[in-house]
Amino acid sequence: MSQPNSWVGYRTIVRKEVTRIVRIWGQTVVPPAITMTLYFIIFGNLIGRRIGEMGGFDYMQFIVPGLVMMSVITNSYGNMVSSFFGAKFGHHIEELLVSPLPSSIILAGYVTGALVRGLMVGAVVILVSLFFTRLEVQHPLIMVSVLLLTSVVFAMAGMVNAIFAQKFDDIAIIPTFVLTPLTYLGGVFYSISLLPEFWQKVSAFNPILYMVNGFRYGILGVSDVNIVRAYAIMLVFAVLLFITCMTLLRRGTGLRS
Amino acid sequence: MQVCCVPREAMKVTGQMLALEVDQLKKTYANGVEALKGVSLRVEEGDFFALLGPNGAGKSTLIGIISSLVNATSGEVRVFGTSVQRERSLAMSYLGLVPQEVNFNQFERPLEIVVNQAGYYGIPKRIATERAEKYLRQLQLWDKRDQPSRSLSGGMKRRLMIARAMVNEPRLLILDEPTAGVDIEIRRSMWEFIREINQKGTTVILTTHYLEEAEELCRNIAIIDHGEIVEDTNMKQLLGKLDIETFVLDLREEIQPPPRLEGMDIHCRDENTIEVSLPRSKSLNALFAELDDQGFHVTSMRNKANRLEELFLRLVEKGASS
Question: Between chains, do B116 and A97 touch, taking CB under 8 Å as contact?
């Protein structure tokens, strides 16, 4: 018997993941649409009118890219961590572990699932934003590539979390205590040029700052950071997380006794 | 089904090659528990093989290593000559596993579960759907194909796991206590299904606590205890080792005083029932003749325990005392 067809296996994982996202649409797509509508009304419209311009754009336009990225990051990470840990907790991850599928295909399938959810939610948030402001995309390729890279990076980060998690509390700690603060401090609502010099330097260590500004550059054409450096940082994270995920999956850490 | 009429002796293993080779397998868990202490085992292609042992003996660890769910500390496992440790993907493509615990996503539907599992083995969706229908029908689950799997009964969940394990048409099927908690009617229909797939050439390894199940189905047997193989032989030879068999006899007369039977141990259960341990050297005819001479008439008779159960207990108790 020859090696089984991994492409079919990959498509099966993706189909299963997308079915899950659609089946629980009330938990996956609707909440970010409602949350972001509230952000647009409160921050963009009510408070934003008093703030005036930021980075040469009205405040509503300025925060749209940041809010899209915030949703993509949260949902890509959240999809991976809940789906993969759920499979581990319910033991149905064993269906994959006893199959001939190589670790790379398992990783690719789950990352694609997280990417689908990240992009679906990102698209919903962009659609919602169009009710409040006008967007003219300046660099479509940069916009799309930053979106994809960010989603992939946080999907893989979610897998690392899910692999090490032993109980449901463990999958809530990182989003609450790491991801949310980094996202809020990553220039979603402000330009870091508003910060004192010391805090600007501190912000430079926050990888989410580069993702938010990369995406903002793609849409509005302005950024607080060098766009090449932003790509370099995202690629470094992507490669490091890929190596980490592959090593953990091959060793069976947290999955095989 | 006609398969149940085929005598066990007629069901020969093909013996072309070894379906499973386990060499000096050791497993020590992180907490220091030594689950396997150098287990070696051979299962021929086409065999119906029983792997028995008390709880905690190491059966599930051994099955876990064979199916790559558990990493071995040392030693090697080969499935149809392919090393699980070195060529995991290829080795796993030969294997189907029915685990002890329910391990499918209970939010998914039976058809979805079986078709997805086929996909993980690289089977295209059209063929996967055909096979899923075939096995769900054979296991009387086709009517339940679109119901949430969490609503299935315990017996249905076990049959669903068999259908899922069969969808890649494995050359080696491992069943870890497939009939635990299943009623006798369903258990017997599962036996027939498994016997039929073995007849068609699939090698089957079965672990069970129902020893009559192993005696009924399996040709070869290994008994594992405290992480070591204490017996590895064929069923006929093993049963041949049984030198004493215990029978329960119901007598028409009140046992007052109990009969005296030379060379046999007697234990009175109640005023009409005795247990007699009959050595292999004595025949049942001799037992009946002696009882008859002493004025006792036997109204019914049964084995105290299944023959394999008696041997199993002796082997395991011997291991515990040593």
Answer: no
